[in-house]
Amino acid sequence: MLENLTIEQTSKLLNSKKASALEITSHYLKKVSDANKLNCFITVSEDHAIKAAIQTDNRISKNKKIGLLDGVPLAYKDLFCTNEILTTASSKILSNFIPTYESTVTSNCQKEGAIVLGKLNCDEFAMGSTNKTSFYGPVINPWKSNESDEDLVPGGSSGGSAASVAADLCIASLGTDTGGSIRQPASFTGLVGLKPSYGRVSRWGVVAFASSLDQAGPICKTVEDASILLEAISGHDKKDSTSSIEPNEHFYKNLNSSVKDLKIGIPKEYLSDDLPEEIQGYWNEGKKILSENGAEIVEISLPSTKTALPAYYIIAPAEASSNLSRYDGVRYGLRVKGENLTEMYELTRSEGFGDEVKRRIMMGTYVLSSGYYDAYYIKAQKVRSIIKSDFDLAFKSVDAIFTPTTPNTAFPISKEELDPVQNYLNDIFTVPANLAGLPAISIPFGLSKSGLPIGMQLITNTFKEQTLLNIAKNLQDSINFNIYPNQWWK
Amino acid sequence: MIEFNKKITLKLAKLSRLSLSNSQLENLEKDLTSILSFIDQLKEINTDSIDPTSNSLDQNLILRDDLAEDVLSNEKLLQNVPESELGFFVVPKVIE
User: Fold this and answer.
1) Contact B39 A199 (CB under 8 A)
2) Which residues does chain B have within 8 Å of residue A311's beta carbon, measured at their own beta carbons?
3) Please, which residues have CB within 8 angstroms of residue A168's CB and are 6 or more apart in sequence?
4) Which residues of chain B are within 8 Å of residue A243 when distances are taken between CB atoms?
5) Distance CA A24, CA A479 (A)
6) Using an 8 Å Cβ cutoff, are A197 and A191 in contact?
7) Which of A222, A245, A464, B20 is least buried, going by the fewest C-beta atoms within 10 A?
8) How far is CA A79 from CA A11, A56, B21, in A?
9) CA distances (Å), A127 to each of A1, A17, A264, in order?
10) Are residues B17 and A345, on separate chains, in Cβ contact within 8 Å?
11) Are B61 and A199 in contact (CB under 8 A)?
């Protein structure tokens, strides 16, 4: 009864008193402890979880009406500050950091009675697309190829957020997405992953990577669950000056899977000879389904697509190098003693940051340094304007854009990239939405010949999350994916 | 195209407050040169009449009233500090 539960199903079980919150929570805590091999969790917050479950059960026993998230066991990427629960950003430099406050997003979930099972492994400071840059070691994808027994990456940076939901160690999770970090791992693990419009969700209390691109969002088993969580975490927050005043919406209640008379754009620049045939195959299948269900498929052009990745790899490191200057060993986190202040800074940061983080700090420092600022940083911001106006133009004639989420499926952890740029190419289809601030979702479509999940992406105009979720639901209901990996890790 | 040499890499490490070993510096030279040649593609794009976008949100930053509020107590602020004394952060001596 308690396998692969969705938020909707859990809520029904609780409301009908077929299971208590404590039973469900204990069941999931057991699953977490049986899945240590996957390395999804950095911290398991068992005491907090049990306490919250008892509180939900008390509400139910008093016949109070409970909300959809009340009593639902979730887990959060270890980038969200959680009051009195270790928050590391998967970095040695924060390996002893226990926040004394709660991020707005997780606090919104807690207010609705959600239960936090723990904090999830990710790439260090969310920098990566494999989860291999974590100080706590890689997360293992619960999916395996039918051709080999090798451990695969879950994608990243929200690798733990995706793997934990795919392995059913929690009902849903929260991740963050700066260049694809929710959508790419969702695609690699057969799940729904949603990045909201920039500003829809408060960034307050979320460890910053690239502030003009970062957004938190849900990784779930269904589109319905994604709409429930999106609604819970959205809304203006006076603590984040970039959070939008756009009113929150009833995404779940208003879900409507009709795509009749919607125009769906297919950007011709996303099709290349390098795109594996089976990904192309599912892409075509999606177009066919949408068209059969009453949508009109239109070819569109996003001419600056190719410039998105290089622009991203200037802007994101630039913002990161500035954001990460706060880790100096003075107020919190790791401190390595030095003879003087500068030496203390240098030794602390060298010991505390991993290689990928150092690379991005160095690159960011370079593009922001005197003499290169205009040639790189300002140039990239101008290119960002062109990318944004490409989308603005496209959305004058279409309601949504439909593309693959990734150019590949999950690959072996042992695969070594000799050149960092090779890893950056994982983000090729996801980065444009971040640069333009658009909402985007990845939904599972099917399995590759070797048995690995393939996801497709939808993008809509800013704050058109309802349209995004509606089309996603239409595809979900037509495809009926609903496949989970064999539980080999038990 | 600029190649990262040891001198530039060392200067960047200094600006980034990172102290790196020789082998780390060599690896970074190679990696940064490769990343730079990738991002250099942008030079081909004409951006003469384009304004930069620093933030995609089409909204003026929202200001709140500047009121004193109880946010974190001194005790909570110092809960994660590596070294403190008399309610202050302690760092190595700066003035001799």
Assistant:
1) no
2) 39, 42
3) A3, A4, A5, A31, A484
4) 62
5) 29
6) no
7) A245
8) 27, 26, 29
9) 38, 43, 32
10) yes
11) no
**Which tokens sit at B58?**
């089409």
Q: If contacts are CB pairs under 8 Å, which of residues 34-53 in chain B contact chain A?
A: 34-36, 38-43, 45, 47, 50-53
**A388–B56 CB contact, under 8 Å:** yes
Task: For residue B12, list chain A residues with Cβ-Cβ distance below 8 A.
Answer: 362, 365-366, 369
Cβ–Cβ under 8 Å, residues A356 and A92: no
**Would you call B69 exposed, middle or buried from its count of C-beta atoms within 10 A (0-12, 13-18, 19+)?**
exposed
Q: Tell me, letter by letter, the H, E, C secondary structure of A349-405.
A: HHHHCCHHHHHHHHHHHHHHCCCCHHHHHHHHHHHHHHHHHHHHHHHHHCCEEEEEC
Record: contact B38-A313, CB cut-off 8 A = yes
Closest residue in A to B74 (Cα) is: A100
pTM of the shown model: 0.97
Beta pairing partners, B89 = B84
Q: Is B20 on the interface with A (CB under 8 A)?
A: yes
Res A139: pLDDT: 98
Q: Hey, which residues does A236 pair with through a beta bridge?
A: none
* Three-class SS state of A2: coil
CB-neighbour burial class of residue A255 (10 A; exposed 0-12, middle 13-18, buried 19+): middle
CATH superfamily of A7-257: Amidase signature (AS) domain (3.90.1300.10)
Residue type, A88: T
Report whether A220 contacts A6 (CB < 8 A): yes
Please state, in angstroms and rounded to a whole number, the distance separating the CA atoms of residues A262 and A290.
9
* pLDDT less than 50: residues of chain B: none
Q: How far apart are CA A289 and CA A480, in angstroms?
A: 12
Task: Quote the CA–CA distance of A343 and A105 in Å, as a whole number.
Answer: 37
**Distance between CA atoms of residues A124 and A279, nearest Å:** 29
Dist CA A352 CA A95 (whole Å)? 9
pLDDT tens track for A135-159: 999 999 999 999 999 999 999 999 9
Of B28, B42, B81, Cβ closest to residue A307: B42
Mean per-residue pLDDT, A375-383: 97
Q: Is A267 in contact with A305 (CB distance < 8 Å)?
A: yes
Cα dist. A155→A17, A163, A167, B84 in Å? 37, 9, 14, 40
pLDDT value of residue A425: 86
Instruction: Give the ranges where B40-93 is alpha helix by DSSP (H).
Output: 74-77
Cα B46 to chain centroid, rounded: 28
> Residue A460 CA to chain centroid, in angstroms?
17
**Which residue ranges make up each domain of chain A?**
7-257
Could you tell me which residues are beta bridge partners of residue A264?
Answer: A297, A400
